[in-house]
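Action item from last week, closing it out:
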Amino acid sequence: MSHGIDAALRRNILTVLPDLDPGEIRPDRSLGDLDANSLDRIEILTRTMEDLGLAVDPLELRQTADLGELSALLRERTSRT
């Protein structure tokens, strides 16, 4: 994952899921794998997009299978701005 995007995702995941072991946050894991419920996922994604100054279609976000794919999508959007 890209360092800035990785840092934003990690920070927001740990903010929303404070009891999560940071070692569980890996590119091959999804937010669901980390036991984030639907409201948690929305909050993590909203915070991350705000941190990065991005607006991404929610349908595109739902198509990502794991944090690696999510990071790639956000990296792609970041390069367009």
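Closing note: The mean pLDDT is 93.
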